[in-house]
Amino acid sequence: MLEQALKHLQYAMILRDCAAQSRDPAARQLFTTVASLHEMRGRALIGRLRARAPAAPRPAERRPWRFGRSAPR
Where is this region: Disordered (predicted)? Predict the structure, then answer.
């Protein structure tokens, strides 16, 4: 699933490069539209993968440092 997501994102990058090199406005718009679809699909797959992954443990909260007489010795 991760490989599919990365392929979609790679296709999006390639299509955006093609859009940047295209002189025809219609072709540029087509490349940009298809690139955004691939990017959306890739990001959706990555979102599904993150939802399936176990949550990382949160670091313990640190108490604020105290100065002066109230500081522990």
Answer: 51-73
